[in-house]
Design a protein that fits this description.
Layout: H1 5-20, E1 28-29, E2 40-41, E3 43-47, E4 50-54, E5 61-63, H2 78-93, H3 115-127
Antiparallel strand pairs: 1-2, 3-4, 4-5
């Protein structure tokens, strides 16, 4: 059965939520640009057929297009940006991007997680159908 883009957005958002609750808690902040003491988790969304990333800190919607100037409001670094681009590839195609945007995707050794946390994230990604 072919999955819809919206269904794949939900898979990615589930993975982002999992990552935000484990290890270094990427994609999470407890205060964003507009409010203090609020749990804020990034997420992906579809809007007018395009894929957007909603940043956990700036709350800005960023069109997920490599090279777009909209990335100025992305509050994380290049490794997470590459992961978000990989997420968008999965949403578009339904296939694992194999880290096409660099850094080795979820298998990247630079996340700074313990090996145990890294394995938990990868295992979860497989369980929900993000990784094969």
């Amino acid at each position: 059965m072919k999955q819809s883009k919206q269904y794949r957005v939900e898979i990615v958002n589930s993975l982002i939520s999992f990552i935000s609750n484990h290890g270094r808690r990427f994609f999470y902040t407890n205060s964003n640009l507009r409010e203090e003491n609020i749990d804020s988790v990034a997420y992906m969304k579809l809007k007018n057929g395009r894929i957007y990333f909603v940043d956990n800190y700036t709350q800005d919607e960023i069109a997920v297009i490599n090279g777009s100037r909209g990335w100025n409001s992305f509050s994380d670094g290049g490794t997470l940006r590459a992961l978000v681009l990989d997420f968008a590839d999965f949403i578009r195609t339904g296939k694992d991007s194999n880290g096409n945007h660099g850094y080795g995707e979820l298998h990247c050794p630079h996340w700074g997680h313990s090996e145990e946390i890294q394995d938990e994230i990868i295992k979860y990604a497989k369980e929900i159908g993000y990784l094969v």
